[in-house]
Amino acid sequence: MADAKLHPVMLAGTGSDVGKSVIATALCRIFRQDGYSPAPFKAQNMALNSYATPDGLEIGRAQAVQAEAAGIPCHTDMNPLLLKPSSDHTSQVVLNGKPVGNMGAYDYFRKDEGREVLRREVHAAFDRLSSRYNPIVMEGAGSISELNLRDTDLVNLPMARYAGAKVILVADIDRGGVFASAYGSIALQTPEDKKLIKGIIVNKFRGDLRLFEEGRKILEDICQVPVLGVVPYFKDIHIDEEDSMELAGKQHSAVSGRVNVAVILLRHISNFTDFGMLERDPRVNLYYTNNVEEIGKADIIILPGTKSTIDDLYEIRRNGVAEAVLRAHKDGTTVLGICGGYQMMGMSVDDPMGVEGSVRRIPGLGLLPVDTVMEGTKVTRQVTFHFRGLEGCTGYEIHMGRTEGKCSALNTFSDGTAEGCFADERTMGTYIHGILDNPQVIDSLLAPFAGKRDTVATGYFEFKQQQYDLLADHVRRQLNMPLLYKIMSQDD
């Protein structure tokens, strides 16, 4: 059966943050377990969390996670169009893994020849992917019923129509209004698009599933499509999050008996998946904060990546966070900067070409003897390196700045090139995302605090594979998989 060609399936949503990405990740794993060769696809993704492909290009982190669940290398064809917000109205446009400029929302969504060029590009990416994998697990974006954007939509039902995909509507019952949101999302479609929707998944259910049996029947009656499953809410399965909305529940406080790691909560924080392994280390209490008192309680402070280094550096000076970091460092706290955070830790950040905006120069925090110059060319690549002589480390780079100075290297690439800055045991910076996915790096970072906990870190790759299997089991138990396979096998 696994060699049979299946139609693509699209997880579309009644709104944003309903769980499309997680369900897509689960299906990628389930199809792989069942002997298929699945691949994820999202025509257009808007996110600050991105990832470098093996060939040094950039895609949304969610599609990289889904590819990992599917057991295949990630590729730009899985997310040909990535929008990285740089302000409330402007985003960097990344096409087929390479930045092609910045655009305002009005210009981007305008119906013109440029829009059709993008449509042809995402169609071509899908065609290439579909020729290599079976089935394609597609993901929509936001709500499928944004009527004002229907004519320019590249990612939802127009994309499903092009791909011949079977659309499954994902509705979030946890936020309430599941009947209205599911019914309205289907009722507002054109007759042609309405036929594409073959089922509903009710996601994030809390409580006894038997209490929703009547609700399930009502939903099927009013929507005229089957409910494929009701998936319970979970907190004990760990999958990398797509966007910073998930950070709201991680802004807790320092505790006793663990190494307290404070990640500075920047306005434009990006790639916060850098801290997934550290967050789950039993020695560590990791929390996100811009509260100056909580910063002062940390053993380790991490300045994370950001899409707008200059803007966020200005903001942390304005709100007192910069002063709190400097005060904590003076009192003995370790400070680590990653990517944009590394740039902030230097003496200055210069932007002569206006890559980030109108501000051409801003002083850094002065913790590292380096200076950064913003450049128009983006570095995107996967890397292997030694961390302070420790071999076998991997990570990736995504940045638009060049940082130089008289500083001992923190890392050494496999070709012998030095990277990052190591001022002392408590002061260091690097451009490498994923550096904290390496157990030897975490062990080194936590070594000065060995007295707080004496357990050891475990391998992150193995941990993630286990989590994908747990997610697949969780979703498979609740989905009518025989019906889904039947839907994906039918030509109508």
Give a short summary of the structure:
The chain has two domains: 9-238 and 466-489, 3-Layer(aba) Sandwich (Rossmann fold), CATH 3.40.50; 258-452, Rossmann fold, CATH 3.40.50. 30% of the residues lie in helices and 28% in strands. The protein has 16 helices and 26 strands.
Distance between the termini: 20 Å
Strand-residue fraction? 25-35%
Reported by name, the CATH topology of the largest domain is: Rossmann fold
Rounded to an integer in angstroms, the radius of gyration calculated over CA atoms is: 23 Å
Q: What is the makeup of the main sheet?
A: 6 strands, parallel
Number of strands: 26
| CATH C-level name of the largest domain | Alpha Beta
Low-confidence stretches: none
What class would the helix/strand composition place it in?
alpha/beta
Q: What is the helix fraction of residues, given as a range?
A: 25-40%
Number of domains: 2
What does this structure look like?
The chain is of the alpha/beta class and 492 residues long. 30% of the residues lie in helices and 28% in strands. A six-stranded parallel beta sheet has the order 2-9-1-10-11-12, with helices on both faces. Helix 1 crosses helix 15 and helix 6 runs parallel beside helix 8. It is globular. The mean pLDDT is 91.
Topology summary:
Layout lengths: L8 E5 L6 H14 L5 E3 L2 E3 L3 E3 L5 E3 H10 L10 E5 L4 E6 L2 E7 H4 L4 H18 L5 E4 L17 H7 L2 E7 L5 H10 L3 H4 L2 E9 L7 H11 L3 E6 L26 E6 L4 E2 L5 H4 L4 E6 L2 H5 L3 E4 L1 E2 L2 H10 L2 H10 L3 E5 L1 H6 L2 E3 L10 E3 L6 E18 L2 E16 L5 E3 L4 E2 L1 E4 L2 E4 L8 H8 L13 H19 L2 H9 L3
Parallel strand pairs: 1-9, 1-10, 2-9, 3-6, 10-11, 11-12, 13-15, 13-16, 16-18, 18-26, 19-21
Antiparallel strand pairs: 4-5, 6-7, 7-8, 14-17, 19-20, 21-22, 21-23, 23-24, 25-26
Helix pairs in contact: 1-2, 1-15, 6-8
